[in-house]
Amino acid sequence: MVEQDLRLLISVVVSAEDERQAHDACRDLVDRIGGRVVEAADCSDEEPGCWSVTIGKDLPAVQVHNDAAALARSVRTFVRELAPDSPLPRVCCEPPTAWTVLDDPDLIGKLVEGAERLLVEAWSEQAPFQPASYQEPAAPEPVPAEHRTKLRLRVDVAVQHPAGAQWQARALASRITEAATITEVTQGGDGVSVHLDLGRWPQPPQQAVTDAAEALGRPEWSPLELRADGSAVQRWLDILRPTSGITSLELVAEPAEADVAWPTEDEPPVWREPGS
Questions:
Q1: Which region ranges are annotated with the description Disordered (predicted)?
Q2: 82 phi, psi to nearest 5 deg
Q3: How many domains does the chain have?
């Protein structure tokens, strides 16, 4: 068994006019669970008049033999303590995180006045919003010029709100790299697609895609597709077509010569309105 630190992140989407009002609405919940606010974000561009408040709570180190089981159990335990009389919602798991969404208006309204939904996440040691003592890892060594490959990932998620798709996509991409950047988010009838730049890799495209697919750990990927421009593509599809969670993936690796216009650090991800 391995001793592992786990951390809970509770994100509340609440109706509020400004950040102070959003903090005030969540104060009772913060005190109740013994947590602290680690981020507040204006999400009125997604839903007019709403803010997202994220509350962090550290858990005691536990002895675990299965990372996924420990993460899922932490979520279930917290939800049972928070709402003991309510049915336990489905818990999804993509190590290093597991999560569930509470969207029962009657339940959420009792926990936080004016709240619309509540997301509960458990993270292992790779949790975002690390404590102040956390030190960023050293910058990676420059990638050699030979076989420099650009790697991209598209994550399709059956979810109503783009924000919910983005954290699921980031959690999955963290299996490959901690430096993933969201470049585009699109919404359609079946859910939301999140496009991520996974950076540059020293392997040739075919090997980069193969290694990335193995890191994502899903069975039954499509045969590797090699294109005339030297790029490599591999796809995964959940044949059960779930009504929530990740439904399909696409990995694309392009040689450096196939240059594309990546957003710079100062440019926000591209957002396309539904139907555009």
A1: 257-276
A2: -75, -40
A3: 2
